[in-house]
């Protein structure tokens, strides 16, 4: 099918036209747009473009070789354990016939400036953590408390399918993806264990020491993920000796994706000149 569509919108003699670009996700991801928009502006202004690095095709070929390497296959047991379902009876059970994209909903939450500043700056600084650590701790605690409210008393982890940009150049010597467009996203399951005892829940929601202990535990669990989690996708999809074992396991009921901090131009576009 078509990977890219371009449309010029003529808004009349008194207003500048618009260039509308629609690209298939196979061709671009969120990081790709941050490369393409400045390049389009530079090309419009007649400025030279920087040279490209490793092509997407080269990267895909390198990953296929990496999938069969001893270092990747050594991670098989780790990823099988991480991917095995360990849900509580209170967890929702997804029905492929009913739970479709067409029936999905969206919840938007805006944080006030003080909370945002704490989330992005001083809390990570105090705990030597990253924003993902904080968000995943909060999510794990929320699910664990939701389970508790429905009578669950088990210790099953909150397994999350963690999505990342996938541009882990250190896995392939000499790779340079700083100016490469394409869909590089990788996903891997992470079992989160906040491990909150019943007497500690009030302290958690008050932001007390129990919340800090949960953050430290989740941070350590995330740091224990080998090689940024890329091995899971390699073993599940690209290694013929292991993919059938992974195909038999269901995907986690929860997913997480943090796109990072970025700003866009007013109206969601980019100026062509200036």
TrEMBL record:
InterPro entries, A to Z: CAT-like_dom_sf, Condensation_dom
Condensation domain boundaries: 17-258
Signal peptide: none
One annotated GO molecular function: catalytic activity
GO biological process: one example: lipid biosynthetic process
The protein's name in its UniProt record: Non-ribosomal peptide synthetase
Species: Streptomyces rubrogriseus
């Amino acid at each position: 099918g078509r990977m890219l569509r371009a449309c010029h919108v003529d808004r009349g003699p008194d207003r500048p036209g618009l260039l509308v670009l629609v690209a298939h996700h196979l061709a671009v991801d969120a990081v790709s747009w941050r490369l393409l928009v400045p390049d389009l502006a530079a090309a419009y202004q007649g400025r030279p473009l920087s040279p490209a690095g490793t092509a997407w095709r080269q990267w895909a070929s390198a990953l296929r070789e990496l999938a069969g390497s001893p270092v990747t296959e050594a991670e098989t047991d780790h990823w099988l354990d991480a991917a095995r379902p360990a849900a509580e009876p209170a967890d929702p059970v997804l029905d492929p016939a009913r739970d479709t994209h067409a029936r999905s909903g969206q919840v938007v939450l805006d944080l006030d400036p003080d909370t945002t500043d704490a989330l992005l700056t001083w809390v990570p600084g105090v705990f030597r953590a990253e924003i993902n650590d904080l968000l995943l701790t909060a999510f794990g605690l929320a699910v664990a408390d939701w389970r508790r409210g429905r009578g669950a008393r088990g210790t099953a982890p909150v397994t999350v399918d963690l999505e990342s940009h996938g541009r882990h150049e250190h896995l392939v010597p000499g790779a340079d993806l700083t100016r490469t467009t394409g869909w590089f996203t990788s996903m891997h399951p992470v079992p989160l264990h906040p491990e909150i005892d019943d007497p500690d829940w009030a302290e958690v929601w008050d932001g007390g020491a129990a919340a800090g202990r949960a953050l430290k535990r989740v941070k350590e669990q995330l740091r224990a993920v080998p090689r940024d989690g890329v091995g899971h996708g390699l073993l599940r999809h690209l290694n013929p000796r292991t993919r059938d074992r992974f195909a038999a396991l269901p995907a986690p009921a929860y997913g997480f994706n943090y796109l990072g901090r970025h700003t866009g131009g007013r109206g969601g576009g980019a100026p062509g000149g200036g």
